[in-house]
């Protein structure tokens, strides 16, 4: 079990290091970096590389933003096989809707509880 934590830490850390390099070396904005990491996760899933990474690293691969791109493509491909072209659109939303909904609800609750400085 300890080795699982180790690899999750290493893989998640490497994804974060890659994002930090994009900030520091390439001077990309946070929006550009975020978009690039999501697209990278989507491409890796399209090539069949992200699922083995998840199997290997667990939360180290599912927690970073690259997993969002993976989820979008994974859901779209699954639904496209079942429902054709319409499934591409519905699959993206079906797989990611719970995570997005939770982010909105908890963000709203946090905004009600805490007062912003300013």
Whole-number average pLDDT?
86
Q: What is the global morphology?
A: globular
Oligomer: single chain
Strand residue content: under 5%
* N-to-C span: 45 Å
Elements, N to C (H/E) = HHHHHH
User: Could you estimate the helical fraction of the residues in percent?
Assistant: over 70%
Our count of helices gives 6
Biggest sheet statistics: none
Low-confidence stretches: none
**Structural class per helix/strand content?**
mainly alpha
Number of domains: 1
Number of strands: 0
The value of Rg in angstroms is: 16 Å
Transmembrane segments: 6-26, 33-50, 92-114
Organism: Sutcliffiella rhizosphaerae
Keywords: Membrane, Transmembrane, Transmembrane helix
Protein name: Stage V sporulation protein AE
Summarize the structure in words.
The chain crosses the membrane at residues 6-26, 33-50, 92-114. Pfam families: SpoVAC_SpoVAEB. This protein has 118 residues and is an all-alpha fold. The protein has one domain (2-113). The chain contains six helices and no strands. It has helices at residues 2-24, 30-46, 50-57, 59-62, 66-83, 85-113. α2 crosses α5 (66-83). It is globular and about 45 Å long. The mean pLDDT is 86.
């Amino acid at each position: 079990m300890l080795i699982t934590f180790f690899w999750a830490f290493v893989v998640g850390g490497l994804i974060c290091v890659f994002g930090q390099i994009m900030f520091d070396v390439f001077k990309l904005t946070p929006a550009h970096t975020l978009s690039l990491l999501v697209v990278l996760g989507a491409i890796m899933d399209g090539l069949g590389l992200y699922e083995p990474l998840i199997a290997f690293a667990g939360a180290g691969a599912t927690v970073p933003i690259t997993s969002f791109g993976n989820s979008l493509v994974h859901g779209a491909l699954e639904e496209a096989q079942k429902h054709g072209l319409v499934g591409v659109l519905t699959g993206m939303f079906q797989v990611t809707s719970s995570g997005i909904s939770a982010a909105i609800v908890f963000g709203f609750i946090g905004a009600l509880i805490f007062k912003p400085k300013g």
